[in-house]
Amino acid sequence: MSSFSISEAQDLTAFGTQTVERLTAASAHFDSAHDEPTEERGWLEAATQRVTGALEGVHRALLEAAPLPEFAGARKVTSEALSNAWADAIEGVFDAIVANVSANGPLVEALFPHQRFAALRRPGSSAQNFWLEFERRAESAYVRRLCSDPEYAFLPPLLEAARTSERTLREALAPRPLPEAQALELREAVSLAAQRLELAVRQARSLAEAVFAATPALVSEFGLDAKPKRRAARSEPAKLSPS
Fold it and tell me: Where are the domains of the chain?
């Protein structure tokens, strides 16, 4: 079996998911055309289980391979979502104070003297400076004293949620370098899982052809004769022969 890159494994995962959907549609049609269970119906179930099991293996391998450089784009999307969640958590503290205490009382002044929340939505030094100032103010003696007051029981969980969001975002923005040996191991695990999925898909196609041997047109109708496409390999640059 040939090896699979991360992107090829992702493509095959999408194809495998479509295959499961097509097998499910074929099973529904098969059920409507037969009053009683048949041996062929069991073949479709076996095909579905085989592809589903292999899909789970690829999903696990891809999840474990998330620290690889190939997932940098996905991490950027994730970090943007985490950045918004962090901003929401901080604004949630302000909203809760307004709802439970006052919009212009001493607690708001202690934590949010400027209320420039737009800075949180712009990654960079502005957001970082906002957080450092907010964290310093949240650790003040006044705020800590209120956190121990039963009347302000809503405050500590919200402050902790903001700290957790900031820590999660910081870790996402600065992932730890991955040793080359570990990176190779993760790529090999993804490739092996994809190879198993490719085999399961081929087996499912053969089983579908056997199920509909008497009505072969249904194989194409359900898309069960489709084959996964591999990305074209990049050609190496031609080497100039010495003159």
Answer: 6-68+178-221, 83-173
Query: What would the DSSP string read from start to end of the chain?
Result: -----HHHHHHHHHHHHHHHHHHHHHHHHHHHH-SS--HHHHHHHHHHHHHHHHHHHHHHHHHHTTTSGGGHHHHHHHHHHHHHHHHHHHHHHHHHHHHHT-SSSHHHHHH-SS--GGGGGSTTHHHHHHHHHHHHHHTSHHHHHHHTSGGGTTHHHHHHHHHHHHHHHHHHHSPPPPPHHHHHHHHHHHHHHHHHHHHHHHHHHHHHHHHTSSSTHHHHHTTTT--PPPPPPPPPPPPPPP-
243 residues of the chain, pLDDT tens digit each: 578 999 999 999 999 999 999 999 998 887 766 555 578 888 999 999 999 999 999 999 998 888 888 887 777 777 788 888 888 999 999 999 999 988 888 999 999 988 888 877 776 778 888 888 889 999 999 999 999 999 999 999 999 999 998 888 877 777 677 889 999 999 999 999 999 999 999 999 999 999 999 888 999 999 999 988 876 654 444 444 443
26 with 207: CB under 8 angstroms? no
Full-model pTM: 0.62
